[in-house]
Every structure is written in C-alpha cells, then in structure tokens.
Amino acid sequence: MRRVLLAVLLTVAAVVAVAPVAHAAAPVRIMALGDSITAGPGCWRAKLWHSLQTAGYTGIDFVGTQSDGGGCNPGYAYDFDHEGHGGFSATGIAANNQLPPWLAAAKPDVVLMHLGTNDMWGGYIPLQDKLNAFTKLIGQMRAQNAAMKIIVAQIIPMSAAACATCPADVQALNRALPAWAAGLTTAQSPITLADLWTGYDAVADNSDGVHPNDNGFRKMAEAWYPALTRVLGGTTTPPTTTPPTTTPPASGPCTATYRVTSQWTGGFQGEVTVTNASSAPSSGWTATFTFANGQTVSQAWNAAVTQSGATVTARNVTWNGRLAAGATATFGFLASSTSTNTLPATTCALTTG
Questions:
Q1: CA–CA separation, 242 vs 141, rounded Å?
Q2: pLDDT tens string 148-183
C-alpha cells in the first residue's frame, strides 16, 4: 500500500513539475526622449502617467536610464524613469550617436520624442539638418526594435523674449513634421505626431519663455495622451498609398480646398488649404465642413480644430492667421472613418482688421 501511495505522489509531483507557468502580459515599455523639458522637472510625464492609470492603462512601464526621483511631487504616485537630458539637442544626439546605448538599456516598445528646442538657439542650424537628425534617430530606434512605435511632438513654442529667432524656427520645424513623418512611417513601425504646439502660450504656459510651468506641463500631458492611447489601443495602422482626393474650393473672398492625403482601414489623413482670395490682408480665418459618414477628427495640427456632431470648425493659430492677398495657410488632421468617406464641401471666412 505504501509503495502504491508513493508512486501516486511521485506521479503528481512530476505533473506539477512540468505544468506550464502562466505569465501575465509584459507591460508596454514607454520611453520619454527629450531635453530639459522632459528631464527636469519634466512633470508632464507624471501627469500623463496619472491620466493613463486613471483611465485603466495599467499595463505600462515608463523606461529610461534617467530618473527624476519623484521630484515632481504631484500628490500621487507615478513612474520616475525617462530619457530626458538637459541641454541636449537632436542634432547633437544624432551626431554623437548617443541614442543607441540608451535604447539598448531601456528596450522601449514606444518612444515619445520631444526634441528640437536646443537646436533653435541662435537660428544657425538649418531646418533640413534638424530633419536629418530626426531621421537618423528614427533609424536608430528601428535598429534596436524593428517594431518600434514612435510618437514625435510638434514641440512647444519658445517666446521671442527668450530667443528672438526661435519662435519662427519652432514653427518652421512643426510645419515640416507632418510631411516628414508621412514619408518615414511604415506598417511595422508607424510614426505619429502629437501636436503640443497648438493652444500653448509661450509666455503664459512657460516659466521662462522656454520651460513649462505647471499649466504648461498639464497642456503637454493632455496633448500626448490621445496620441499615446491610440498606440496603446492598437490603432496605429499607418496610411497606405492611395491617390489623393480633393474637393474644389468654393468661390468668394476666402476659398478652402479639402483633400484626403492618405487613407487606411478605419481612418485617414486630411488636409485643408485656406486661401485669401480678397484684395486685403486677413487677421484670421475659420474653415468649416460637415462629414456625412460619421467621421471623427482625432488629431490636428496648424489649426485649432473642434468638432460638434458632424460639423468640424478649424480656426487659425497665432502664427498663420494673417494672410496677405492671395496667400494660403494649410492645416492637417487625422480622423476615423468607415468604408465610406465622402468628401465634404468646405467653406471659410476671413477676419480683417
């Protein structure tokens, strides 16, 4: 009897020993890459972490070789890790190949990149050099992880009081990023933009014209949140190459041309060009269109865009409202769509004086 009992116990032990162990899904590793705006104190990270946790995005891990040690003191717990380096520039990081060892240590699945502010000082670095640096950094991210999901910020503004040439140079970089991102995005490693510029006041939201105050950090976190949650939700399929489609502009002192620049299952990227067709300069403009198939705008750049029901209203931002006679301004957006994506008629109006 004892022999039988011993045999049974050994059999059970063997079964237990070889039984597979259940593992929870690994958290998504998110690296915030930037300069002092990200590093110190970089409290947009704390606010973003809190918003994600509150909304139920708990399977995440902020990673990086740096830590703020909890210095933001927001009154709630957050993940301290990041890859912010005060005083660093995009061109410098790229030229010195500083990113690969950071990536190797952090092993991120997603990168949030707010870089370029330190490339603006003095106005001597050409825009193309900044874009070339961004491109090299993207290549290094993909070399570390071929399926890297990359979110690039249209960076926050700098005040003229802090740097006379910087406001225009920041705007030039931000205007160039949509086309740059569209040219580099891939199905395996999509690049999306987070518009941190629109609605951000370089004076009121910064402590010194460059670095955010608490309200600025809040605005940054709010702008990062929708871009990151789309990636975490798995809705990162990039545009496919489809022929652009355009609606003709309406006649009048202000004309607006709507076009779909790329389209994929469940979404598309659109663009509207507003033209001052009058003989006098404008001080502002508003464009309006109404979707017919339940489309919803999720992100926009170069305009302040709101949607009420099916109607979308876009207003100029501070730097592109003044249009000379015959001049144009273009804004872009991302939106969800069904299999039908009817092009809406688009109208615009000018503000003068």
A1: 27
A2: 999 999 999 999 999 999 999 999 999 999 999 999
Query: Would you list the DSSP string of 58-70?
Result: -SEEEE-SEE-TT
Is residue 323 within 8 Å of 329, Cβ to Cβ?
yes
Phi first, then psi, for residue 192 (nearest 5°) are -120, 160
64-106: per-residue pLDDT in tens? 999 999 999 999 999 999 999 999 999 999 999 999 999 999 9
Q: For residues 193 and 182, is the Cβ–Cβ distance under 8 A?
A: no
Q: 133, 94 in Cβ contact below 8 A?
A: yes
Cβ atoms of 159 and 201 within 8 Å: the answer is no
Structure-model confidence comparison of residues 308 and 338, the more confident one: 308
Residues 15-53: pLDDT tens digits?
A: 333 434 444 578 999 999 999 999 988 999 999 999 999
Side chain identity, residue 23:
H
Paired tokens of 191: 């690049």
DSSP 8-state symbol, 41: S
Around Cβ 322, how many Cβ atoms within 10 Å? Answer: 16
C-alpha closest to that of 249 among 175, 328, 309, 305: 328
Do 193 and 178 form a contact (C-beta atoms < 8 A)?
yes
Residues forming a β-bridge with 331? 272
